Amino acid sequence: MWPQDTIIEDGTAGASIQYCYVNTGTCTPSTAYNNKPIYIKPADSPYMETICANATASGYAQSENTCNYYTTWGDSGAPSGDSRTVTEPAFPTGCAVVNATKYSVWTNAVNIDPYNATAGSAHGGTGTQGTLGATGSSDFEPSSSSSSYVSAETSDYTAVVNALNGSNSCIELEPGSSQQSALVMTPFTVPANKTLIVDAGVTVYMSRAPSTYNNGGTCGTLISGSGINGSHCKPAITMDNGSALMGYGRIDYRGWAQFTSNATCLASGSSSGTICGFYYNTIAAFLNTHSETESNQYGMPQGSNYDTGLGGFSSPPEAINIPSGSNSVVLYKITLQNTPGFGIQWAGATSGEACATSGLTLWGVKIVDPFDTDNTDGFDPISGVCNFTVRDVYVSNGDDDSAIKSTTAGYATQNANYINIHKYSGLGMSIGSATGGGIDNIWYTNVFCSGPTKNGAGATLSTTRDTCIKVKSPDDGTNAATVSKVNYEGLYIQYEGNGIWVYPYYSCPGTAPTYSDFLFQDVTLGTTPGSMSFQSWSASHQSTMAFNNFTATGSFNGPNTPSCSPGWSGDAYGDFTVGPNPVNSTLQAQLAAGTGSVVSGTACTSGCVTPYSANPQPLVGELVMSTSSATNQQCSPSSPCTASGSSYQLTLQATLQAGSEYDTMESPQLSASGCPACTITFWDSIAGAAPIQVGTATLSGNGITAKATVTITATGQHILTASYPGDSYYAPYAWGAVVVDFND
Residue of 310, 365, 462, 565 with fewest CB within 10 Å of its CB? Predict the structure, then answer.
């Protein structure tokens, strides 16, 4: 059954009711029933709960105990969020090939790199900030030669789009014959029912010419309002109905890069003049070295975010747009980097059919953006979309890591699964701010949050910018509605200024929202967990929430004070249930302290909560194999590849990605000496024996890819893996595996 509320009634007027609940068996009623609904909490399937009750009344003997039994279903059961049965996508075969024509250049002749402490005079370097001749350390630019930076780029648009519009259902972007690894594209569409694959080691660089994105306005200009959502720019990439974007390669939108049309950037503090690039305000304001703490958004000067600073918006395009009616779209494994504005945004209808966009699958996608760039949202369903799954993703950016929205009354965003989420820098896995259409049946399962940690070493956190879970509404005076059936199961949270923030006062004025049937289950707030806040709009718009197996290894900070409210501050007007498994007594005390709040259930004393078991790892790796006749072969344990003969040669290609903590934007600075000095080791376990080393490689010029060619001769099953040795920031990390069954 679905999660639901239940009530207890007795036919005798004035009867007093006592109740209890347990997972298995029966119990003796001992808690006074307060005539409010009891929330039956969903969990791993199936989840059993028993509620027992009795009643007493004047002139009557106490009734017998009566028990009812309930079963709810979690992520592995049905129903849950997405009503579809979603399986891991697979790469199509027999694709038309387009080869890369350019190199990703590692060079000192670069435009301004705001994430490198030596680039430009503002950072103590010898160049001029914002000029092509600035002296920097590392940069990646596509070039037709192997050693020169080009200010005017030639596009590969025609070759790629001609292939996409051809007769083949899939197009694969592969390295060139002389190891070229880059292509340059202006905005394009992946047509209906077509697949575009970007191979490991290949980077698609989006254009630095803002005019290529113009959409009736002037893209990339300084404006007073929001320039996202098509008002000034068309999307960089548009996905049509049934289309797919796949691959272990990456798309670099170069939000930090200087526009081709400009030779200089605005000086810090200016409100008019020439704009450098889409991250204009961040670039213009990033004047300090990387030794600061986060006194204001990681030491940025005031006005560094481009909502309020330096005169307005440097209007950016969306990175990927999935328009209304584009159903069954798939994004698989692809890495999106330096997105200029919103990352992946999909929209439903605001009139007509309520669920006009359905069946989206985001699996294994990675988004890596700078930590202080507003409106670089990761995954944003915005209105009237349903039945979508976001799974095994990795996101690190400067705004909402995901923001589930509904903008139009009657067009709810509903039925979604977020599974195995790794969130690093960013404002959180959010719901809102727009909730006017209603949001319903959203399941988060296994979410790991680790806030910005300055290369893993920890940082002073901001309670407004560093968040794991956030629920916010209304939005700038728009109507708010009901957000219901939101389930958080399996959270591990560390280094977040806000661990969990349920906040209905995002802006004023607005219509009051209602948050109902929220579950927080198997939650661990770990190192520096930050504050928690569970709030309601008013007594007539009361939040109903349940907490089960909830613990924190650090201290709880106080709740957030609303910027506007009907007359109180702090947590308020919640109907909270704790248990049946233990929760911190500190949590129960905070919930009970809210104005008008009611807490039912029993908390434990210190030390009796079992922390949720997680495996936090701030790195993400992929491993694939290629042969002379095939690329991107997954060869997973569930679907091994087969080979035979006297020997079998294959190329192992490993990618390793870190978050956007300080110096990790252009390449993951995984060690104190930085990449590309990072060594990846490849291993082979034959027929279950201990792994033996079969090769090593350093991460290449693009900072995230290493490959080695190995030869298999021994009969049996080969399990091939990759490993990183660890450094002062990151623990050793092993990943894979590629599985090959070999017979001679």
Answer: 565
